[in-house]
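Appendix B: complex inputs.
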Amino acid sequence: MPALFPAELRQAVYLANLRLVEAGLVVGTWGNASGIDAATGLVAIKPSGVPYPDLRPEHLVVVDLAGTVVEGDLRPSSDLPTHLELYRRFPGLGGVAHTHSTAATAFAQAGRPLPCLGTTHADHFYGTVPVTRDMLPEEIAADYELNTGRVIAETFRGQEPLHVPAVLVAHHGPFTWGTSPQGATENSVVLEAVAQMALHTYALAPATAPLAGPLLDKHFLRKHGPGAYYGQR
Amino acid sequence: MPALFPAELRQAVYLANLRLVEAGLVVGTWGNASGIDAATGLVAIKPSGVPYPDLRPEHLVVVDLAGTVVEGDLRPSSDLPTHLELYRRFPGLGGVAHTHSTAATAFAQAGRPLPCLGTTHADHFYGTVPVTRDMLPEEIAADYELNTGRVIAETFRGQEPLHVPAVLVAHHGPFTWGTSPQGATENSVVLEAVAQMALHTYALAPATAPLAGPLLDKHFLRKHGPGAYYGQR
Amino acid sequence: MPALFPAELRQAVYLANLRLVEAGLVVGTWGNASGIDAATGLVAIKPSGVPYPDLRPEHLVVVDLAGTVVEGDLRPSSDLPTHLELYRRFPGLGGVAHTHSTAATAFAQAGRPLPCLGTTHADHFYGTVPVTRDMLPEEIAADYELNTGRVIAETFRGQEPLHVPAVLVAHHGPFTWGTSPQGATENSVVLEAVAQMALHTYALAPATAPLAGPLLDKHFLRKHGPGAYYGQR
Amino acid sequence: MPALFPAELRQAVYLANLRLVEAGLVVGTWGNASGIDAATGLVAIKPSGVPYPDLRPEHLVVVDLAGTVVEGDLRPSSDLPTHLELYRRFPGLGGVAHTHSTAATAFAQAGRPLPCLGTTHADHFYGTVPVTRDMLPEEIAADYELNTGRVIAETFRGQEPLHVPAVLVAHHGPFTWGTSPQGATENSVVLEAVAQMALHTYALAPATAPLAGPLLDKHFLRKHGPGAYYGQR
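Resulting structure:
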């Protein structure tokens, strides 16, 4: 039987998971990245609780958008329902990543959104990275991971999720996404970097205001959208 | 004469000690990990003051629960009496670890317990990591390391020590434990990570409240206990 | 046709770019270093958006001081117009570097200059590293990168730029320079180190005054200028 | 002609210098370590401004206690007169080290001594690591490095320098010493670690009091002096 999930994309999801480790964003088995095959709607994700040094591309678990396993012998990451909800609600995603990276998690634990304080942030996130509302006891008691995805989608209601491809789940930590698994994990890396910068910025000047519109527009739009001129053609 | 201490467990204790170095938790010869053989009650521990690069499995010192050396030519870690008191008082332990990791030690030095501020903490520690009371001059003057174990046990009176497998010894630093040497050192690694997150969280929001019950229960119990569904079966 | 840009200087610019990575100052494709050939006025700079692991000396883009590409198939760094303005306005420069290093960027985001708080700073920067004024919407809308160079030059009006070879562009991050590409990147490295020290110093003593004149003079002048006695002859 | 400086001690001084790099305490060419041969009073020290990767044992410069070079073709570290003054004033020293390590330098820049806040500190330093007084303009103008040694010696007047083998030179950074070059650099490593812990401790509890006498005595004396029982015999 031929593989249902494209081999190249499987490799990309595998490398995206390793990138989280290489960038120092995960401890132990924390964190996970997934990727979706637009043609079939199948999603490949890290198996649950497998140490990264042991991880091989064939360990990835492939599921459909309803969560039914179609390839793989291991249990998928316990965060799978969150990933699937994001793929269902945010069309255009190619990958999702989740970490407990230190500085971004501190903002999530403090219940504080991460405003755009400089051009580093503006180059990747078109404004404030929001924090979700607290989940209700009944949202936690049943279908917790699915409901985590739902409160993320609620947070982005009326917004283009690829303009700010990151969220801070309150008391928990960041989820990021992108048009590919690699894009999702790079947004995890950048989010942690700008969260560190923001921690230091607030230590120096607690009342620092978010970036004004012109500079925010300039930096986001020189890298994204029709007028972009950053990088190679 | 056959070895009294199981070779596989000796190797596990050896690797647990190296893990403390790999995770960046120790400077110089600081820190130590031990493991207990449930069948015999024998404990293997790092020798005192031996640099980690020179450490070999055969250097580990094996003692009985009264502290009598039964295998090994070197002196055991000076913290041995603390480890032994924890094994005697907390049935079910398989390993104990001690570090002076930076952020956890800062909480110990500040005399502040480490409340559960997020799900990273809740995944491993079922509530506040407590700080011990100050030791009395007479507890310091004689049997200091034994008394360190006693104040730890006193701190956990009436509590299941495997629910919160870590303590901050006031003015000193963290001890952690687990059902294996590897589990004990992983708790040292996680404790340092959540202490770093807590430092940043308090910098952003000094009055952050501990996690409410439903989220604490959800995260601890999805990884621990009969209803756990994290990891592979 | 012989190469227009000296091979040895090309190699130096290449290594200066790699040095930014090695020193932990860049994430992803951020940051760039350039060098100028004094004989011809030609400038070699990193291409835009190329990952550092893929970068080869032949990828560098060579332009004249007006920005016309004379060697290379790739697009130059989008920050090129800033570099060129600095070469045009600050005679004597041999190299320019730009990073988003964490602590220096935090000062830029906070809109705070970085005063000389100790001899580490004084050894490399002869006084406060200034922060630029905010750019006007019209300076951002058109020729943004060129105008970034102009506000830097405006900040140094009447000052010798090699005495304080660094600036914090408000809401953005640091640019540094030197008499060579290597000198420029070393100033990026040192700037980040002294910014980290300053963050901690202000945490301990928010009202710390800048270094008094005699110690500032002593340290800067023992490494720079006619009476220097640091290093080998 | 036979070498005047013992080859084994030369190697030890060389390795002590490399240890500063390995421990992440130096940037560029900052920092230096020296060692003294008790038999001859000759001192070997790092040459000035030589990058660590290029450093070889034969590059070390050997001087007598008056500073006259007796072996080596390079100029000694510009901090040599400070080292020599410490050897002359503090009998029993075997090595001296100097770094600009981040957290210790922050205390020096803030003009704050580093009190003993926990047992990690007490294991190595028998009380507060002091900060020197500010140097006078005339002490800076002439014989600056010698006068740096003098204000250090003044700071320790009436104290045993091996009980607290470290000092914070105001606005500058730490010097440490020990009975060997290796001991001196290990004290640099530990000083930076306890300074980091202290930064975090003060962030959590600004009014943290220094360790009380019994715990300070216990920890310092179990590693130092006639009743020591830490390490191997």
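The longest strand of chain C covers residues 32-37.
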